[in-house]
Amino acid sequence: MTDDAHPASRGVGVVVVAAGSGSRLGAEVPKAFVPLAGRALLQWAVEPVRHLEGLASLVLAVPPGYEDPGHPAWQGGWLPASAVLVAGGAERTASVAAGLAALDAACDVVLVHDAARCLTPVAVFERVVAAVRAGADGVVPGVAVVDTVKTVDSHGFVTGTPDRASLRAVQTPQGFRRAVLDAAHASGLAATDDAALVERAGHRVLVVEGDALAFKVTTADDLARAEGLVADGLVAVPHTGRS
Ligand code: CTP
Ligand code: MG
Q1: N or C: which end of the chain has fewer CB within 10 A?
Q2: Residues within a 6 A CB radius of ligand 1
Q3: Can you give the pLDDT of all 243 residues of the chain as single tens digits?
Q4: How remote is the CA of residue 202 from the centroid of ligand 2, in Å?
Q5: Nearest CA to 83 among 129, 15, 27?
Q6: CA 13 to centroid of ligand 1, rounded, Å
Q7: Whole-prediction pTM value?
Q8: DSSP per-residue letters across 69-86
Q9: Could you tell me the CA-to-CA distances from 105 to 1, 96, 223, 238 in Å, in that order?
């Protein structure tokens, strides 16, 4: 719950997780630092956050060693001056937890975003924040699934065909009331997304409309797709220089 008697506790905190190695991409540097049209994926990912209304705190969870602001990866002055750098962990969940621990107290809404979803439009961030502000404990952007999906057993035999109309492929940023996400992470359990921890804790999570541009760069093909979208002028190029 927001508390109007304590306006200092109203604000949006954003944790961008960027500490993965990018083993499936197979580049020489961690995935968040791989260039896309000459700028690190992380710079693209941070760009919409800079434009987010109500932003109170921005934390980047980065590979160990990169939390030093003198690291060569930060050359060029694009890192927002207010951003806090922390070393991530061995699993995504641990990187989120490290980021949450460094968020400013003055946020009652927290967004967790994958650096690898580097072309996510600011409108997706805004939809997620609005739905949390409207009362949801947890909110995830999602898109309809185009393939028919099967569940299988350990031998590969089909055990079921879920109704496609009830499926959503979910993206980030995922948004939560801060107290809800903090408590879910305090469980010490791991999951591939934060909503799963919040669901397990018994909270309802709402899906809002995602965006095709919020796809995750996982493989070299995905990076080529992102390069094509930038070359075609379909995404805004990040601003350079300190803010
Ligand atoms: N991530 C993280 N800390 C980890 C693992 C992942 O902060 N220990 C972040 C990644 O940097 C990425 C997001 O979580 O922004 C989604 O993870 P994924 O796409 O799987 O990235 P990687 O783990 O880096 O890639 P791979 O699984 O191919 O190694
Ligand atoms: Mg991974």
Answers
A1: N
A2: 17-24, 31-32, 61, 88-92, 95, 114-116, 216, 218
A3: 444 444 446 899 999 999 999 999 999 999 999 999 999 999 999 999 999 999 999 999 999 999 999 999 999 889 999 999 999 999 999 999 999 999 999 999 999 999 999 999 999 999 999 999 999 999 999 999 999 999 999 999 999 999 999 999 999 999 999 999 999 999 888 899 999 999 999 999 999 999 999 999 999 999 999 999 999 999 988 977 554
A4: 26
A5: 15
A6: 20
A7: 0.95
A8: TTSGGGTTS-S-TTPEEE
A9: 15, 16, 36, 28
Which ligand 1 atom is nearest residue 62's CA? 7
Task: State the number of CA atoms in the 13 A half-sphere of 88 facing the CB.
Answer: 23
Q: Which-ligand-closest: CA of 21?
A: 1
Strands 158-160 and 109-114: unpaired
Q: Which CATH class is domain 12-231?
A: alpha beta
Q: Whose CA is closest to atom 23 on ligand 1?
A: 20
Q: What angle do CA 125, 129, 134 make, to 5 degrees?
A: 150
